[in-house]
Sequence to fold (200 residues):
Amino acid sequence: MNVLGRTNLEYIRWLVSKETQISEVYFREYQYPAALPGTPPALRDKLFSLKRREFLKIGDLETRMEELAKNRNIGIESLVRSGRHKFHIPMMDFSLPKNTNSIRLLKKVFGGLISKRFPKGVFFETDNSYHYVGKNLISVHEFIEFLHWSLIATYRKGRKLHENIVDVPFVGYSLIKRSACLRITSYPEKDYLPKAVLLI
Fold:
């Protein structure tokens, strides 16, 4: 599949179709904003799952997305099931603003650090910043390592020696929930879905 320009949902559908051992995919319906800084994950989150064939068949998920109440969003969880076993799709959210310098930093710093240890993947441009989705599954243990290594992806900014590239609260919530989540619906009154802009 030609990935560039595709939405993150289109990409993850392709990934699930390629990873034939996946039997179930998880999603999270949540309030927007999901949580204020420094607060626990939202209590009104609704976790649900779709069987592989339901997810790959376009229509079921889209209907659920169209019927969302205002200020509600659906995100896809990193967690997937294969029979009795659980795996993760590597996912990350970034704090960098959208510009060419940020793309350079993502490729050099995050890409350089992560691609040596985990499956390579795709960067998606969002409303304000960027997301990352890997192209192969990793184990539950590797997922926790992925989150830890992501926090080390830093760069020098002025006199600060360690400016984080990743969205630190996103990593914190992912460690609390033991799963990451990336939005696949557009925010209220916005019509922009994350689209692939860079492969590593």
Q: What stands out?
A: The domain at 8-195 is CATH 3.90.920 (DNA primase, PRIM domain). The chain is about 30% helix and 30% strand.
